[in-house]
Write a structure and sequence with these properties.
Blueprint (H helix, E strand, L loop, with lengths): L1 E6 L6 H9 L2 E6 L2 H11 L3 E5 L6 H13 L4 E6 L1 H4 L4 H8 L2 E4 L4 H28 L11 H15 L4 E4 L6 H10 L8 E5 L5 H9 E2 L11 E2 L1 H4 L4 E5 L6 H13 L1 E2 L8 E2 L3 E6 L3 H6 L5 H7 L2 E4 L7 H19 L5 E2 L1 H9 L5 H15 L4 E2 L40 H19 L4 H8 L3 H11 L8
Helix pairs in contact: 2-3, 7-8, 14-15, 14-16, 17-18, 18-19
The protein binds adenosine-5'-triphosphate.
The site of adenosine-5'-triphosphate has 17 residues, from α8 and α16.
Keywords: ATP-binding, Nucleotide-binding, Transcription, Transcription regulation
Protein name: Sigma 54-interacting transcriptional regulator
Organism: Thiorhodococcus fuscus
Length: about 475
């Protein structure tokens, strides 16, 4: 049976209900939008049928439109009267929110066929979302499908195919270590050791001996001979995490090693030749560090034959949901908490949050939410995130109407100097340009900006940006 949500003020007539049942639809009826939302949270429908009131009822129509807008994950088919199509805003609504529509009178066979198409399509999309990022081999075990991530995969591929030193830069928690591991695993060195060291976690006085090793008795606490990390990685890859925190003295020794590939342990009289590939990562701006004389420029150029940047999570809104689902699967396998789902509000909150701690923070938020959730549905209150703005019920409002086309834009007051204002202005400009580039097509604009259509509408409402209706 295929689950179907039907929203209609009046119960379905018997004949239609029987036909749908005979066509393998498991019908769940809701007579008002609130009940429909509730059902949708519990049942995870792929498709729904919204039956508009047959008699003129502006409020009733508006509530159905709001409901449909609030549940964009569902493929909606609406049944409505011919004359309703001409009503204010209805064509926009049909084009942008519905999978298809059906003009009264309701006919069971015809509606079942349309719903069947919607269902098939939804299944394919769902498979793509849940399967592809987890299995696609060229994604290097990383989750994410946004443009910036696809660009990252291309760079990782290039890095894996070559043997030059790589510098991975990016904010904390964006997957630099995962990227380094992925390069090693896909390179010709994959069978040899991968040794990762965190340069910030080792006291500066010890770093030298940790990297290069020491002979017994070479300094007071050197009770035994010790092989350094570089030698342990022989034939493989050495990952130097947080290289920006490496003391200048060690930088000089590392540079010497990169130039001649010879490791001389502390206290040793002879050096050994070691073949390792070095991948380094940093979340500090090394060019700035060079200017501040905290990092050697010559070492930077030795390390950065190829530089790869891992993107901020808030640059890739679509990936947030993929990652959240992925971490929920990890919760199931690692913590044994199964059958958890996100409420629509929880997903909206995850998308709205700005994620200063990036993927690491997202992972921790999902794990904590799973542990604090008492039922099976994760809601915003289970997640320890502080939103800068309230959840967008306003996102449910339909896009501006054509007649607003010549209206003066609703310019937000702008005070020079504050970061928030600068960000808002740049967000607004990007939005306007993206809409213009895509001839006001909401779906394409949302894709280009890497946000959902719901978020795009929210941004348009927030900045008072109208679509140019002539397009
Ligand atoms: N694209 C991704 N897909 C799946 N998991 C990810 C992704 N990016 C990051 N993670 C996870 O997020 C966490 C942080 O990743 P990682 O340690 O690689 O970040 P980092 O950039 O090296 O952080 P830092 O700069 O603080 O060392 C890890 O649990 C990692 O598995």
């Amino acid at each position: 049976m295929r689950k179907l949500l039907v929203v209609s003020q009046a119960p379905l007539n018997n004949e239609i209900a029987e036909t749908l049942k005979a066509k393998q639809w498991d019908v769940h009826e809701a007579t008002d939008p609130e009940a429909a939302r509730q059902l949708a949270e519990e049942q995870q429908f792929l498709v729904a049928l919204a039956i508009f009131p047959e008699k003129k009822n502006a409020k009733g129509e508006e509530r159905i439109r709001e409901l449909v807008t609030c549940l964009p994950e569902i493929k909606w088919v609406a049944a409505l009267a011919e004359q309703q199509i001409a009503r204010h805003g209805m064509k926009h609504f049909i084009a942008e929110r519905l999978y298809d529509f059906h003009v009264f009178p309701l006919e069971g066979d015809r509606i079942s066929t349309v719903l069947g198409h919607a269902f098939g399509m939804a299944q394919i999309e769902q498979d793509l979302i849940t399967m592809e990022p987890l299995t696609a081999p060229n994604r290097f075990g990383l989750i994410g499908e946004s443009e910036v991530m696809l660009a990252l995969y291309r760079m990782l591929q290039r890095a894996a195919e070559s043997d030059v030193p790589v510098l991975i830069t990016g904010p904390t928690g964006t997957g630099k270590e995962l990227a380094a591991r992925a390069i090693h695993d896909h390179s010709s060195r994959s069978k040899a050791p991968y040794v990762a060291i965190n340069c910030a976690a080792i006291p500066p006085s010890l770093l030298q001996s940790e990297l290069f090793g020491h002979e017994k008795g070479s300094f007071t606490s050197a009770n035994n001979r010790k092989t350094g990390y570089i030698q342990s990685a022989s034939g493989g890859t050495l990952f130097l995490d947080e290289i920006g925190d490496m003391p200048l003295e060690s930088q000089a020794t590392l540079l010497r090693f990169l130039e001649d590939k010879i490791v001389t342990p502390i206290g040793a009289t002879r050096g050994v030749r070691v073949d390792v590939r070095v991948i380094a990562s940093t979340n500090v701006d090394l060019e700035q560090a060079i200017q501040n004389k905290a990092f050697r420029a010559d070492l930077y150029y030795r390390l950065a034959f190829l530089t790869i940047q891992t993107p901020n999570l808030n640059q890739r809104e679509h990936d947030i949901q993929l990652l959240a689902s992925y971490f929920l699967e990890q919760v199931a396998t690692e913590a044994g908490i199964r059958n958890l789902k996100f409420s629509n509000e929880a997903i909206a909150a995850l998308r709205l949050y700005h994620w200063p701690g990036n993927v690491r923070e997202l992972r921790s938020v999902i794990f904590q939410a799973a542990l604090s959730c008492d039922g099976t549905l994760i809601r915003p209150e289970h997640m320890k995130i502080q939103l800068e703005e309230p959840l967008p019920l306003a996102a449910a409002s339909p896009p501006p109407e054509p007649q607003e086309r010549h209206a003066a834009p609703n310019v937000q007051p702008y005070t020079m100097g504050t970061l928030k204002n600068a960000r808002e202005q740049s967000e607004k400009h990007n939005l306007e340009f993206a809409l213009a580039r895509n001839a006001s097509n909401v779906t394409r604009t949302a894709q280009e900006l890497g946000v959902s259509r719901m978020t795009l509408y929210r941004l348009m409402a927030k900045h008072g940006v109208a679509r140019n209706a002539s397009n």
